[in-house]
User: Fold these one by one.
Assistant:
Number 1:
Amino acid sequence: MVTIVPAPSSQSVAAALAATGVGTLATPTYEWFTDDEILLSVPDFDDERAIVVGSTATSDAHVELLQLQDAVREAGARDVTTVIPYLGYARQDQAFKPGQPVSVRAMAKAISTGTDRVVVVNPHEPGVTDFFTVPTEVVDAAAALADPLDDLSEPLFVAPDKGATELATTTRDAYGRGDVDYFEKERDYDTGAVEHTPSDAPVTGRDVVVVDDIIATGGTMSSAIEVLADRGAARVYALCVHPVLAGAARTKLAAAGVERVVGTDTIEQPISDVSVAPAVADAIDG
Ligand code: R5P
């Protein structure tokens, strides 16, 4: 059998993974000390295979994942798979200015030292998998985002930038009908402000589903929703794989007039209405 070990950030998705039958849940001990150090421990287990599950949305979560990888080896695991539902720092995939690090490369190297393989869900750029030094598999969870959509009228699936077009297409295909389009996006990197240039696709009276990989500050998504509302869209849905929802993101979406926000459980949020666990289990079962 296989033991599944959840990091604090990924308890729901690890439980959902166990429910698919790929392994049995272990209950680790999580301790956080007053000097800000962390100590995560695993109970004794007999299995030779362990699956450590941890999203790395915060710097602490990175440390927690590394500790669990080390702990399962100490506990006797000979084969370790690391599932990263949300890979943090993936947008720092190059040194944008002189003197900057390639942060995700540093994270990937560290994670690789404690595992035999990595499974990562929709990394911001698929190319980041090259930074891991162990076999790495990407899971695409975009199809699951279509599950909660009700009966849409003349649906249009929109990517809020060209890079998200494949996600929007996958979600549309899973829904079964509708058009796909994308907006041109420009971001002011000093202020973070986003400006969208809409395409020519008619939206008046149609239900529109905006699909992105991440909603972080909500700037991208709320700008797209406002443009669609101005152009007469009926209901606008905001879908993302990774609901980071930093700061006032959820409020920005509501103020922009969103009908519903749907994310997965790669980051556990109140709007995490679908699970990536079945897709991850498929990747693990290979
Ligand atoms: C950018 O390329 C990503 O796909 C997302 O659009 C972006 O990370 C969303 O960030 P925010 O919510 O802060 O606009």
Number 2:
Amino acid sequence: MKNETPLNIALIGFGTVGSGVARILATQAETLSIKAGRPINLRRVVVRDASKSREYLPAGISVSTDVADVVNDPEIQLVVQLVGGIDPAHEYMKSFLAAGKDVVTANKALIYQHGESLFQLAATNGRTIGFEAAVAGGIPIISAVTQALAGNRILSIEGILNGTSNFILTQMLDHEQTYEDVLKEAQALGYAEADPAMDVDGTDAAQKLSILTELAFATRVPLESIVRQGIDCLELLDLQVAQELGYKIKLLATSRLHGERLEVSVQPTLIRGDRTIAQIDGADNIVAVEGDAVGMTTFSGAGAGQLPTASAVVADIVDYATGRTQLTFQSILRSLKQPSVSIQPQEELSRRYYLRFTVDDRAHVLADIADILGRHEISISSVRQDESSESSSGTARLVIMTHHTTEGSLRGADAELKKLACIQGQSIRLPVAD
Ligand code: NAP
Ligand code: HSE
């Protein structure tokens, strides 16, 4: 039955995602009111600069730069906070919860960093927090992990969780665009964070992985415990060599149980080209979740951008309007109190590796490198030195693929390799997921 009393909401932030939410609320008003059981009324908007002209801003709506206008409006029940970063988003969120308002947000940095205390504050005040859009944009992965897969013990979560870096890798390889040009394009398309360093250095994906890991395994993983590497270390040559070897390089986020210990990493990874995950291109994301009952499930779709992200935010608004959030949020709070698992020490991670060096093109260089690898029990699977990569500067690009070895062995070898005078510039090593 439909209730004619509207749900009054406020939007804090009217940028890429906020304007997308207003757009969906306007274009889908009738169907949304049916799904929600009552009309959804956008009553106030708060931004940083009220003088900007804005597409999709409903006529006659109150726009201000002061969140107190929302805090002090007793008609507003739900605040949709779409301001990025920690400050002042954190203070805003606390003031809304303390004022007895429920909150929906897409801010993964905030949920990662202050989720625990914010959830506690919400619980103390009898309020809720919806955060479906905080991980993997339009893919409903939070509800999948917390609700749809409730019948499972989750065994692993693996995927691509950052749209910007996937877009950059795709455009560089397919169109030979420069890293800098594609990053600018990703910013113009609204995919990148206000500080795009967080997209390309793996921080954003690691924050999302940490959120998913906590929901799936009741285990809080701080960024320091995640083996983390961004795409900013890659060159076009790495993408091309990987492709010639039958792989695609993707920024792969992994949380996997080994017995009672959890492997957690975010790294550009060589993935066999015929695997689904390797074929996810552009700003799309993919999340493969393995449960003990269901087996492997895979969710893919747009991981960033205005409408895909707004799609997840609007789903949270509808869930709240129907009363579902009030139930699922309680369930999440209870689940987070389950016993946690321990994190596998980084040194124990065992994978094959891709190693790329720029070396002096002279005798004994390969022998020196192989000697160090050998002394650390790292067995070489193949060596590749492309003649065309040799430059007039007398250096050459050397790519070594290893057999299975541990992160610890590689770290030990790294320390010695760094001392070799024949190695020039930055070397990189990437794991291989066969
Ligand atoms: P955005 O385009 O930069 O928009 C941010 C909005 O916040 C702007 O309207 C800005 O106002 C407003 N704002 C900034 N500081 C403010 C302050 N102190 N007080 C009031 N308003 C303030 O960012 P976005 O891409 O929409 O992202 C919003 C959130 O969603 C972020 O947490 C982001 O990580 C997350 N997210 C984004 C995507 C995506 O694809 N873009 C996907 C998933 C999650 P002005 O317009 O006046 O500057
Ligand atoms: N900057 C983020 C990304 C937005 O590129 O994935 C979606 O969370």
Number 3:
Amino acid sequence: MKLFASIAAALTLVAMAAPASAQFAKPEDAIKYRQSALFVMSQHFGRVGAMANGRVPFDAKVAAENADIVADMAKLPWAGFAPGTDKGGNTKAKPEVWTEQAKFKEGHEKLVAETAKLAAAAKTGNIDTLKTAFASTAGTCKACHDSFRAQ
Ligand code: ASC
């Protein structure tokens, strides 16, 4: 019983330490997953952008809430670009996602870093800090789209 409890505790720790990952029954599910994560991210990024661009009044609390969601969502889509998911659904992902994996990974790591900075910037409550971080994050989105997303 003691041994069983130790094993169970160890497995729980491993599960907690493992990075978030997702497994998919079919390519279509992976495609849907990554597109959904990117869509949710874009909705919240758009809310931050509306403030950064002066389309809606700056509300530091709302900016911070939305930026936090952007930063969390930024971690998710990449699991959905699994091998063999270049086809099997309605995807604009270019073959380069899989043929230039080092560059693609670099792009996603950059986005995770930039969105973390965006979330930190939003928490300062300073609109100029937020504007700078927003522009930088948007540039990261665009760079990756230019290389890896078909029109
Ligand atoms: C957004 C959004 C994107 C990026 C990109 C930045 O708000 O949905 O895909 O910004 O347009 O260039």
Number 4:
Amino acid sequence: MSKEILVTGGAGFIGSHTCVALCEFGYTPVIIDNLSNSRESMIAGIEKIIGREVKFYPIDCCHLDPLDLIFQKHRFDGIIHFAAFKSVAESVANPEKYIDNNMGSLQNILTLMEKYRVPNLVFSSSCTVYGEPEVNPVSENTPWKSAASPYGYTKQLGEKYIGERHIQDPLGHVILRYFNPIGAHHSGLIGELPLGMPNNLVPVMIKKISQQQPLQVFGNDYPTPDGSCIRDYIHVMDLAEAHVKALQWLEKNPNQSEIFNLGQGKGNSVLEVIQQFESINGIRVAFEISPRREGDITQIFADPTKAKELLGWQTTRTTAEALKDAWHFNLQQS
Ligand code: UFG
């Protein structure tokens, strides 16, 4: 009997790719998603890739009663909790919305985990918890700075809250701190498709190309070799596979808890990403330099050694491959 894993936010960018990875490793994902920043077409994309139907409930994790019914209906062997708002800018404009939604949904998930004795939670966190680090690469022990946005604050608070509930009732959890996820499944059937105007570099770049407008590069006067910011871009399928490894680690280490950085372990500047996109896809990216974006840090990249040693996971895809897959996915949409 295949193990059923609840995937909240499973129609989203990282969630949909993780559902595919779960199926490849013999698990059965059960998706909950309120479609607030995702599309039902991602469910169809997942089904095409895996060759069968997937169970999907279009509900909101902040609503306890319908969520409880799903826990009554299924006997989950684990939960991967993605469902959260993730726009830094929106969180600055409307912090209460972020606290209410991101903490409310997490609280409900933990309550039902405890009520139905579901083991093994994988929580979606972010390198944003580190703020602007003094030294790179950052390990899991790098001290946190105060959060640069309410979004970042919900990730810090979420990690702490899970840790505190774990002390009361240790059902086992892994916290995954993502660096910058980009790319798409190589089939082009699922990828990054935010509703409304995107904020992140690669989807913005793709949108600007299709609109024949220049990409705004936010700042070229940072203390980096080419003056633009440096991030650790990670292919979304590498990230998806890490979630499966995290579940497998929990199965071997019941009731334990761990935290892992997920990145390539090297940084690329914004200008390097543009140049790599152009050369791998044979397309010109028009851009212009604009002022720094408020809240951006100069550089951050991961030390992913712990994930390699404990999970047996490391990235296998390059930034260039991710940029190729992102563009391929975009071409399938038109
Ligand atoms: N950038 C541009 N122009 C754009 C968009 C981005 O130059 O139009 C630059 C940014 O200034 C930054 C880099 O591209 O230097 C990456 O920016 P992103 O917005 O893609 O990602 P961030 O590093 O800002 O990270 C944010 C959150 C993370 C979250 C991540 C992915 O802070 O917590 O988005 O959602 F994980």
